[in-house]
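Fill in residues.
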């Protein structure tokens, strides 16, 4: 074995050019596969950092009457689940909200997780300090308590050892610190503080069964129960709730999935498709190296013949040649591991954000990834080494002296083994080229979509509003705050206009409201229309560049509701507050077409919510253009806008500013002015609107760039394979070409023959690859926009690009063939 290894290294040392090219080719293929397997490992395979993670279920609601669209969980519905189910040993509700934390130095923006008492029990987490939540925390009259993450404890409270039991100020309200969580604890969001929800439920309108707002549930299955069994029971509970609350729960069902599956999310398809692409690159690399080894095999036939004559068995020859292949593969695998570690940093953004939170910014390299790399390295060595080893081990001494090439007999005649391998390379390269072409065409179609606004010269940022407790006492507090902010910003240099709105277009937030036409019968349960709703200040449409189509928009003089004295704003008294009030609304063109088809909606009215909710009526005063706020590829949705002056809710808002110069240039000026004027309302998430739009398609662009890169590598390897075969053939046939030219053959005849042979290699691979791409592209359909998987332009571009590159590869050896000197060629033998 040692002598075989020494001989292998000696062989590669004598051919440094071949060795370097082969190792680099393998390193690229193995490194790319290692990087992508690391991503898959983090996203799909790595165990969650929770005990009994295989028993943790994720629960959410969905509207069975609207194509299964997912919904957040209603808190009153969850309370009924908790009482009626018996498949979970622990069941917890959680919702998230951005909030303000008063620290010894300043007011900070933090992420709040509002939970019920079983939350940490589901995850199997014990506080490092303090106590666990218990049933006494799950009543509305309970004292507000908080559990800080270890990072929050260190960052904002200097890891104070006596913080347990003390109060901290969150959103203007005192919370007693009940515990500090372990440093190792991670959840699927970057949550800073966890608090008990029940004392806050009414304040945040969670007591309304109709409110499905940014929430879900987690359950720990009892031993012996399964996800399927839990789904059956929860579906039965959903049916009972539909019967008990037909209006609020019409069409609403429950979906139970493993937590791991939820964490993977929609990334599973992307990851598997991209992994298939890098797998094809590695396969092409193996075929390319196999061809290179076959070319070297021609120069070693005499060596193998001599070894056979001296008594070497066929098994010994195969062993030696496979050892050489494995040595080459191991060198490539070692270099590929380094590339894989580096490449993980590049493709690590493909890891779903939930998994990034759970596992941190690790290199992605663990024992499982190393085992994968070693396995794929050995398999690769076997893959590209088997054919050359088999060919050389069957060398006949007589054939070796004649230098007879290995051929495969087909129905079309004699076909060289190297030709078959090049055809395989071409076919696989075509698959990647067509996939990349489809994605490029799809992105081009997305780029043509009108976003419905003018994003240039618009700066946006989030700003915290007055706390909900203040809003309950004084419902005008939010509007006054918004007016003060916009008045201040509007007077800053370089600012043309400023406005505030919640759920800004091309952000990840969304809010949808049930409503019905006031002039038509009340719809049946489950058939109420919904529309996205926005609260805005005046100048919002002007600032974002949303066109006004008909009617008028808000001017800041909208009549305010008559708020009764000493009546807090709660779900129970909304009917009292808005009894004699009609709100004004501006609607989108899509909503006008859907709700009032063929009618003029100006002056028409609709009722917010369900009839028993006593929400205000709304009168349409204007129509504006549609905005593709959820992404260019998703198209516009029905939406309506309400004025903060009439309906200012205490939720985080976005400040948008249209500038006369580069918006990024005034960001610091705006931040400084607002920090000084409103120190208890921190700013965050400062970005231009152009950046927000780009972010929504950044995932598609990133995937496209990867596909294009892999397609280019595949094309390069295929071209190298074509060139190598033709150069080998021309080199072998130099004497034959010289004789033909001596007998009168023209250079164009020789050129035509070489090109014809090249096309014989290319055309079958091109046709077979197109057929494979047609089958495989159906898995890409979910990634395409306004382009079918059979798009002829994409196939034509891919085929034309490959043919062009292949013809260039053919011309080089063909030109060499035409330069053969007949006299010199005849002397070579």
């Amino acid at each position: 074995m040692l002598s075989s290894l020494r001989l292998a290294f000696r062989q590669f040392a004598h051919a440094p050019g071949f060795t370097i090219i082969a190792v680099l080719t393998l390193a690229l293929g193995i490194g790319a596969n290692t990087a992508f397997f690391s991503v898959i490992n983090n996203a799909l395979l790595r165990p969650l950092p929770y005990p009994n993670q295989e028993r943790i279920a994720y629960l959410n609601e969905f509207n069975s009457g609207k194509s299964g669209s997912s919904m957040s969980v209603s808190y009153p519905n969850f309370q009924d689940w908790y009482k009626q189910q018996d498949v979970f040993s622990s069941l917890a509700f959680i919702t998230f909200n951005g909030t303000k934390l008063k620290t010894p130095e300043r007011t900070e923006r933090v992420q709040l997780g509002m939970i019920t008492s079983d939350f940490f029990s589901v995850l199997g987490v014990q506080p490092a300090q303090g106590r666990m939540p218990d049933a006494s925390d799950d009543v509305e009259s309970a004292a507000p308590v908080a559990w800080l993450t270890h990072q929050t404890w260190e960052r904002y409270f200097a890891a104070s050892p006596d913080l347990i039991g003390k109060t901290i100020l969150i959103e203007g309200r005192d919370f007693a610190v009940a515990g500090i969580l372990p440093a190792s604890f991670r959840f699927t969001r970057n949550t800073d503080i966890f608090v008990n929800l029940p004392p806050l439920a009414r304040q945040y309108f969670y007591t309304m069964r109709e409110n499905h707002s940014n929430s879900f549930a987690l359950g720990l299955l009892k031993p012996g129960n399964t996800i399927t069994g839990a789904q059956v029971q929860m579906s039965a509970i959903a049916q009972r709730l539909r019967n008990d609350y037909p209006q609020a729960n019409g069409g609403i069902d429950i979906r139970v999935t493993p937590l791991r599956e939820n964490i993977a999310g929609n990334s599973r398809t992307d990851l598997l498709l991209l992994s298939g692409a890098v797998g094809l690159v590695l396969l092409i690399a193996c075929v390319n190296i196999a061809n290179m080894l076959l070319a070297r095999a021609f120069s070693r036939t005499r060596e193998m013949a001599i070894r056979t004559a001296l008594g070497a068995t066929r098994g010994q020859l195969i062993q030696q040649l496979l050892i050489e292949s494995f040595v080459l593969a191991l060198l490539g695998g070692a270099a590929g591991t380094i590339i894989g570690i580096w490449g993980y940093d590049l493709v690590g953004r493909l890891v779903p954000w939930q998994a990034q939170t759970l596992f941190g910014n690790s290199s992605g390299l663990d024992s499982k990834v190393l085992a994968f790399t070693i396995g794929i390295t050995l398999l690769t060595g076997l893959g590209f080494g088997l054919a050359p080893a088999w060919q050389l081990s069957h060398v006949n001494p007589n054939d070796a002296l004649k230098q007879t090439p290995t051929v495969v007999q087909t129905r079309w005649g004699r076909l060289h083994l190297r030709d078959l391998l090049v055809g395989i390379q071409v076919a696989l390269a075509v698959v990647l080229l067509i996939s990349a072409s489809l994605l490029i065409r799809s992105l081009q179609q997305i780029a043509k979509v009108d976003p419905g606004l003018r994003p240039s010269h618009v700066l946006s940022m989030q700003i915290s509003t007055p706390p909900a407790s203040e809003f309950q006492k004084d419902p005008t507090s939010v509007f006054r705050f918004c007016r003060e902010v916009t008045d201040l910003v509007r007077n800053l240099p370089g600012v043309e206009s400023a406005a505030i709105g919640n759920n800004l277009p091309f952000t990840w937030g969304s809010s949808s409201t049930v409503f019905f036409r006031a002039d038509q019968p009340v719809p049946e349960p489950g058939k109420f229309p919904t529309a996205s709703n926005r609260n805005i200040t005046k100048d919002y449409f002007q600032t974002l560049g949303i066109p006004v189509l008909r009617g008028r928009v808000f001017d800041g003089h909208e009549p305010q509701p008559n708020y009764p004295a000493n009546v807090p704003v709660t779900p129970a008294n909304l009917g009292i507050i808005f009894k004699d009030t009609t709100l004004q609304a501006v609607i989108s063109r899509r909503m006008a077409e859907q709700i009032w088809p063929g009618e003029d909606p100006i002056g028409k009215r609709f009722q917010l919510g369900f009839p028993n909710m006593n929400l205000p009526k709304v009168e349409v005063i204007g129509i504006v253009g549609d905005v593709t706020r959820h992404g260019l590829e998703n198209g516009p949705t029905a939406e309506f806008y309400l004025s903060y002056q009439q309906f200012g809710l205490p939720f985080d808002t976005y400040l948008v500013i249209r500038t006369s110069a580069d918006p990024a240039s005034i960001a610091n000026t705006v931040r400084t002015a607002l920090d000084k004027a409103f120190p208890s309302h921190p700013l965050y998430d400062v970005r231009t609107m152009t950046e927000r739009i780009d972010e929504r398609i950044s995932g598609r662009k990133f995937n496209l760039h990867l596909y294009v890169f892999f397609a280019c590598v595949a094309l390069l390897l295929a071209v190298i394979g074509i060139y190598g075969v033709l150069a080998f053939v021309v080199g072998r046939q130099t004497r034959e070409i010289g004789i033909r030219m001596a007998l009168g053959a023209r250079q164009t005849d020789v050129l035509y023959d070489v090109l014809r042979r090249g096309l014989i290699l290319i055309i079958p691979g091109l046709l077979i690859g197109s057929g494979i791409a047609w089958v495989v592209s159906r898995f890409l359909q979910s990634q395409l926009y306004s382009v079918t998987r059979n798009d002829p332009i994409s196939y034509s571009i891919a085929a034309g690009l490959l043919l062009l590159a292949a013809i260039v590869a053919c011309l080089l050896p063909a030109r060499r063939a035409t330069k053969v000197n007949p006299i010199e060629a005849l002397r070579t033998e």
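The longest helix spans residues 698-732.
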